[in-house]
Design a protein that fits this description.
With 87 residues, the chain is mostly helical. It has one domain. The protein is built from 3 helices and no strands. Helix 1 crosses helix 2 and helix 1 runs antiparallel to helix 3. It starts with a helix and ends with a helix.
Amino acid sequence: MFSKKRKDCFIRNCCAYFLICQNLGFGSDQWVLPASAHNETVAMLYTYCFYWSTLLLSTIGDVPLPVERSEYVFVLFDYMIGMFHMK
């Protein structure tokens, strides 16, 4: 399946996405978690973030376009990881 290195990369990326969403504010734009995320369980938040991370790192998903500069930097960084590290 996946090596430990790749699994760790998905998990770290998942957590980074959550922290960015929390910092920018849930529901502040289409790229971050929706405002209803405040009412979700930790397991559901992790599942959504892991799903998003998988789509972005595998470069197969249709993720929302970034709006803020920090979102663009994160997405570009993820695409580079996906292209070079995950192959």
